[in-house]
Design brief:
heterodimer, A: alpha+beta, six-stranded antiparallel sheet, five-stranded antiparallel sheet, about 30% helix, about 20% strand, B: alpha+beta, 16 helices, 13 strands, DNA binding (chain B)
C-alpha cells in the first residue's frame, strides 16, 4: 500500500512524512516508528541519493563532482542558490555583445560577492589564477567568507563588513591572506595576500535583501607575472634621481598615476612627494643606497611600498616650466667628472592596488651610467 | 533502543571527507581510522592506561568532530530551506530528506531556465554570462566598450559609461573614439588598436631584478592570443553636462585645459568580430571590407589619483593633522584633515608662512622653537598656541616638530609638524584687538598691499619672522662651513630695494637657500626688468630671504647648488629661457 503524505501528497516510505518527525511521536497514518538498523540505513540511502542528485546538478566538472563530500556538496548548493537569487528571473538581459567569462581576464583580480551575513554568494572562476584553488576547492571548508580567509583578520573583516552594510555604497577595503594552493604558496613564499575592495550594492530594482550583496574586487597585493592582467609600459613609471633624490627625469606615465606632468617633477625633491607616513621608511632606503659603494655596481635594496602623494594632495600653482628635457642633459654633462653624473639613482614604481599613490618602489639603486 | 538517529546517518558520509587543513580548530584526527588506536597486545601494562586515555580522548575528540559536522550539516540544511521557494510556506521545520528533495527540484528548475542559452557554448557556471558581465562592470566601476580598429569607431559601450564619464550611452555609439581622447594620447591609442605587436616606447624594467628588459612583457596563461591583449592608460574627456551642445563641440586644443579629462585604464583584447555579432546596429555606410572586423573589446576603469577616503574607519572629527614647513616656516604640505579643523583648503595655505596665522602673542615662543628645531636633530614640542581658522576664530593647537633631513645631503628637506587640537580653547575673533602694525623685525619693509584671497586679519609681515630665522640659521651654518665673508643676507636686503626675485615657496622644496654674488644679481635683475613685471605673489615684504642666491659659499656642494638653481628657475616669475644661463659666469 502506498501511503501519501497528507501535506504535500507525495508518496512516502513507511516511516517518513514531510512533517517534522519527533522520534517519539507516531505519525498518524503509518506503523509505529521504530528505529531499526535497516530503517536507519534506508533513510541514509535516501539522503545519499538526494545528495548524489544534487551533486550531478551542480555546474562543475564531472571530476570535481566525484570528489565531493556531503558537507562540501551542501556548501556548493548553497552557493549556487545564493548566486541564483542575485538576479531574479524574468529580467531581460541588457543588450550588447555576449561576453562574460572572457572579460574576467581583463580584471586585475577576481570577483567576490558576499551576502549580508558574510556568506559566499559568488566567486569568479579566475580566482584560480590568483590563489591556485578553484571555486570548488575554496568551498571545501565552508561557505562563509571566513572560510577562505587565512590569518587572524576575522575581527577587522567583521567590522568592515558591518560598516559596509550600514552604509550601502560606501567602499571598504581590507587586506588579508587567503587560502592558497600548495604550489602557489611555494611560488609566492606563503599564502597570497589579497586586497579586497568592495561595497554593498543593490543589483536590481527594487532592492531586496537577496539582491543586495557585497560586491568586491580582490586583487593580489603583490602582482606576479602570472596574474591575469597583461602588463603594459603604462603600469609602471620610473624615475631617475640625483644622489639627494632630486628628480632628474621621470617617465610620462607618471601622469596617469599621480597626476603630475613630467616637467613639474624634474628638479623637485622626491621627499616632497612622500606621504608623511612613509617619509622615514623611504629615507632609510635612500640611506641604504647611499651607503652602497659605487664600486659594487647596482645596489638594490628589496622593493618596498612607498606612498607618493598624488597631485590632488599637493596642489601646485600653475606655472610654466622653464626647463625642458634637453636642458637637463646638458646640466648633467656640465658637471664633468662628478660621481653624481655617472651614478644617478633609478627607481621603478609598480602601482599598487591599495590606493592611489601607493607604489611598490623597486630597485632604488645606483646605476653605472645614466640610462 | 534510543532513537537518537544522527550518529548512524552521518558516519556513512565520511568516505569522501576532504583534507582538513591544519588551521581547523579541534582535533586533526578526522581521518584516522578507529583501527589505528587498537591497543596492541604487546604493549606493556603501564602504557595501557595511557592508551586507554588516548582511546578515550580520541573517541571524545572524534565525537566532537562528528558533532561539529552534524551541526554544520544542520545549519546548511536550514539555510537551504530558507532559499528554496517551496519550503518557505511551510510553517514548521522540515526534515532533512525533504529539504534535500526540494533542493533537487529547485536546481533542476534553475537549470531548465538557463538552457535556452546558446547550446553550443553552454558551459556550466554559477552565473549566466550577462549576469557576470554586470557584476564585472559594477565591481570594477568600469564600462565595457568595443571599438573598431580601423577607424576607432565606437561600436558598443555599456550603460555604465554614464556613471563614469557622464555620457549618454546612445550618444557615444557610432562616434569616433579619437574625438574624445586627449590629444597627446591619440597616437598611443592608434598604436594599441593596430594589429601589430605593440612595442614599448619606454623601456620596461623587470620588477624583480630592476634590470631593463627589451622584450614585450606578456603576462598570463594564454586564454586568448597573447599578442591580442592590450592594456593602456589614456585620458578621455568627461562630459560635464548632458546637454546636446556639449557633444557637438569640436575639441579645441587651446581650450584643453578647460575640458576635464579622466584618466582611464583600459584593458582589453583584439577580436575579429563581424558587426552583427557585436549586437548593435551598424550604419549603412560602413566599409564593406570584410577583411578587417578587428575590434578592441575592453573594460575602461577610472584611474583617479584622488585617494578614496581611508576606508573602513569610522569617521570621527579629526583632531590631528600633519603639516610640513620649509626652513622659513612656509607650508609645503598640508594634510587634508586640516581642512576639517581649520577650514582652509591645503592650497590656500601652501606657500604662506605659518606665522601669519598664529596669534601674535605666540610668535616669540614659536620663533624660539623654530630655531631650536633647525639646530637640533630632536623632536621639539611647542606649547599651546592659537591658530587662526578660516572663519576668524582661533583654534588652539599643540605641535611636535622635527627636522627631516635628506639622507644624502644631510640638509633639511622640511620640518614635519604633527599638530593636535587642544580642546576647549576656541576663542572668538573679538578678543583679538588690533593687530600691531609695527614691524616685527627691523630689516623688514612694511608693505601695505592688501592681498586678495587672504582671510582678513592676517598679520602682514609676520611671514618674515620665519624667513629671518631661516636666514640666521643659514648664516650660522655658513660661518661654520665657509670662510668667505660674503654679503650677509641682511646686507643684501638693505642693498637692493628693487622688486626682486621672489620664489613661490610652494615650488621650492627648499634644500638650501643660495645667494648670487652681487654682480650676478644685477645681471639677473636687469634681464628681469626687461622681461617685464614680476608677479607679486604674496603678502611677503618685498625682499624675503628666498630671493638671495649665493653660489660662492657652497662650492663643495654643487649638487645642491645646481638643484636649487633648477628649483629657482622653475618658479613663477623666473628668468627667461634656459639659454640665458650661458651668459652667467658660474663660480663652480
Amino acid at each position: 500500500m502506498t501511503i501519501f503524505c497528507s501535506h504535500c501528497h507525495r508518496p512516502l516510505q513507511a516511516e517518513m512524512s514531510c512533517l517534522p518527525t519527533r522520534a517519539k511521536q507516531a505519525p498518524s497514518a503509518s506503523r509505529p516508528f521504530r528505529s531499526t538498523k535497516s530503517a536507519s540505513k534506508a533513510r541514509r540511502d535516501q539522503i545519499n541519493a538526494e545528495l548524489q542528485a544534487l551533486r550531478s546538478l551542480l555546474p562543475i566538472s564531472a571530476q570535481e563532482k566525484e570528489r565531493l563530500s556531503y558537507l562540501h556538496t551542501m556548501a556548493l548548493v548553497c552557493l549556487r542558490l545564493r548566486g541564483a537569487q542575485l538576479f531574479p528571473p524574468g529580467l531581460a538581459p541588457p543588450a550588447g555583445p555576449a561576453l562574460g567569462t572572457e572579460l574576467l581576464s581583463l580584471l586585475p583580480g577576481f570577483l567576490l560577492v558576499l551576502s549580508a551575513d558574510s556568506k559566499l554568494v559568488y566567486i569568479s572562476e579566475n580566482v584560480a589564477q590568483v590563489l591556485g584553488l578553484s571555486v570548488v576547492e575554496l568551498l571545501a571548508q565552508g561557505d562563509t567568507v571566513f572560510d577562505i580567509l587565512d590569518g587572524r583578520v576575522g575581527e577587522d573583516v567583521h567590522k568592515k563588513l558591518l560598516l559596509a552594510r550600514e552604509e550601502p555604497g560606501r567602499e571598504v577595503t581590507f587586506v588579508s591572506e587567503m587560502r592558497t594552493s600548495k604550489a602557489f604558496r611555494l611560488q609566492h613564499g606563503g599564502n597570497r595576500v589579497v586586497a579586497v575592495c568592495g561595497r554593498f550594492v543593490a543589483l536590481c530594482w527594487p532592492p531586496s535583501p537577496s539582491t543586495t550583496a557585497f560586491l568586491a574586487l580582490c586583487t593580489p597585493v603583490v602582482q606576479s607575472p602570472t596574474d591575469g592582467e597583461a602588463a603594459s609600459q603604462d603600469d609602471i613609471f620610473q624615475s631617475m634621481h640625483l644622489l639627494d633624490m632630486t628628480f632628474i627625469d621621470v617617465t610620462e606615465s607618471v601622469t596617469y598615476h599621480l597626476g603630475y606632468h613630467r616637467e613639474e617633477l624634474v628638479g623637485q625633491s622626491w621627499y616632497s612627494l612622500l606621504h608623511p607616513e612613509d617619509a622615514d621608511l623611504a629615507a632609510a632606503q635612500h640611506r641604504a643606497v647611499g651607503e652602497c659603494q659605487a664600486r659594487e655596481g647596482a645596489c638594490c635594496p628589496p622593493p618596498s611600498m612607498v606612498w607618493l602623494m598624488p597631485e590632488t594632495w599637493l596642489p601646485r600653482k600653475q606655472r610654466k616650466s622653464k626647463l625642458s628635457p634637453p636642458c637637463c642633459d646638458s646640466l648633467l654633462q656640465k658637471r664633468r667628472g662628478r660621481e653624481v653624473v655617472t651614478h644617478p639613482i633609478h627607481c621603478v614604481y609598480v602601482v599598487s592596488k591599495l590606493g592611489a599613490g601607493i607604489v611598490l618602489c623597486h630597485g632604488i639603486q645606483k646605476r653605472d651610467k645614466p640610462t | 533502543m534510543n532513537p537518537v538517529t544522527k550518529p548512524a546517518t552521518t558516519t556513512s558520509f565520511n568516505a569522501a571527507v576532504p583534507d582538513i587543513p591544519r588551521k581547523r580548530k579541534g582535533s586533526d584526527s578526522d581521518n584516522q581510522d578507529v583501527s589505528a588506536v587498537e591497543v596492541d597486545g604487546d604493549l606493556q601494562k603501564r602504557s595501557e592506561d595511557e592508551e586507554h586515555v588516548k582511546v578515550k580522548d580520541f573517541r571524545e575528540a572524534h565525537s566532537q568532530t562528528e558533532k561539529r559536522r552534524r551541526d554544520k550539516m544542520n545549519n546548511l540544511i536550514e539555510e537551504l530551506s530558507a532559499m528554496i521557494p517551496q519550503c518557505n510556506p511551510m510553517a514548521r521545520k522540515l526534515d532533512k530528506l525533504t529539504v534535500l528533495r526540494m533542493a533537487v527540484q529547485h536546481l533542476k528548475s534553475l537549470k531548465g531556465s538557463s538552457s535556452s542559452y546558446s547550446e553550443v557554448r553552454y558551459k556550466p557556471s554559477f552565473l549566466k554570462d550577462d549576469e557576470l558581465r554586470q557584476l564585472i562592470l559594477r565591481a570594477a566601476d568600469g564600462f565595457l566598450f568595443v571599438v573598431g580598429c580601423n577607424r576607432g569607431k565606437i561600436l558598443f559601450v555599456s550603460e555604465s559609461v554614464c556613471k563614469i564619464l557622464n555620457y549618454d550611452q546612445a550618444s557615444l555609439i557610432g562616434q569616433s573614439l579619437f574625438d574624445y581622447l586627449h590629444p597627446k594620447d591619440v597616437a598611443k591609442v592608434k598604436e594599441q588598436l593596430s594589429s601589430s605587436d605593440v612595442s614599448p616606447r619606454e623601456k620596461l624594467v623587470d620588477g624583480k631584478t630592476g634590470l631593463q628588459v627589451h622584450t614585450d612583457f606578456q603576462a598570463g596563461p594564454a586564454r586568448l592570443n597573447s599578442g591580442a591583449r592590450r592594456s593602456f592608460f589614456c585620458r578621455i574627456k568627461c562630459s560635464r553636462t548632458t546637454v546636446k551642445e556639449e557633444k557637438e563641440c569640436l575639441p579645441n586644443p587651446k581650450k584643453k585645459d578647460h575640458r576635464k579629462y579622466c584618466t582611464i585604464h583600459c584593458t582589453g583584447y583584439l577580436k575579429n568580430w563581424p558587426p552583427n555579432e557585436v549586437g548593435v546596429e551598424e550604419e549603412n555606410d560602413v566599409e564593406k571590407d570584410s577583411s578587417n572586423f578587428n575590434c578592441l573589446v575592453a573594460i575602461g576603469r577610472l584611474h583617479p589619483y584622488i585617494v578614496p577616503q581611508k576606508s573602513g574607519e569610522i569617521k570621527v572629527k579629526a583632531t590631528e593633522f600633519v603639516t610640513r614647513f620649509a626652513m622659513d616656516g612656509k607650508f609645503v604640505y598640508v594634510d587634508q584633515r586640516a581642512t576639517a579643523i581649520l577650514g582652509y583648503l591645503p592650497q590656500e595655505l601652501l606657500g604662506t608662512s605659518c606665522y601669519e596665522y598664529c596669534h601674535q602673542d605666540d610668535h616669540n615662543h614659536l620663533a624660539e622653537k623654530h630655531k631650536e628645531v633647525l639646530q637640533n636633530k630632536e623632536k621639539v614640542f611647542t606649547n599651546s598656541y592659537k591658530f587662526r581658522a578660516k572663519d576668524g576664530t582661533f583654534v588652539t593647537l599643540k605641535s611636535q616638530w622635527f627636522s627631516f633631513m635628506n639622507p644624502w645631503t644631510k640638509e633639511l628637506e622640511y620640518i614635519v609638524s604633527n599638530n593636535t587640537v587642544v580642546l576647549g580653547h576656541k576663542e572668538s575673533a573679538e578678543e583679538e584687538v588690533l593687530y600691531s602694525s609695527q614691524p616685527v623685525e627691523d630689516a623688514v619693509k612694511q608693505s601695505l598691499v592688501s592681498v586678495p584671497g587672504m582671510s582678513s586679519g592676517t598679520i602682514l609681515g609676520a611671514g618674515s619672522i620665519g624667513t629671518e630665522i631661516a636666514n640666521e640659521i643659514l648664516e650660522l651654518q655658513r660661518l661654520h662651513s665657509s670662510p668667505s665673508g660674503e654679503l650677509s643676507p641682511s646686507h643684501l636686503l638693505r642693498k637692493s630695494p628693487s622688486p626682486a626675485l621672489t620664489i613661490n615657496c610652494s615650488d621650492v622644496p627648499n634644500k638650501e637657500l643660495v645667494q648670487l654674488c652681487p654682480s650676478e644679481t644685477e645681471v639677473l635683475e636687469n634681464s628681469e626688468q626687461t622681461q617685464g613685471a614680476i608677479p607679486f605673489p604674496s603678502n611677503e615684504p618685498l625682499l624675503s630671504g628666498n630671493s638671495q642666491l649665493d653660489f660662492d659659499a657652497i662650492c663643495e656642494n654643487d649638487d645642491t647648488a645646481m638643484t636649487a638653481l633648477m628649483n629657482y628657475l622653475e618658479a613663477d616669475g623666473g628668468l627667461g629661457d634656459p639659454a640665458d644661463l650661458s651668459d652667467i659666469q658660474w663660480a663652480l
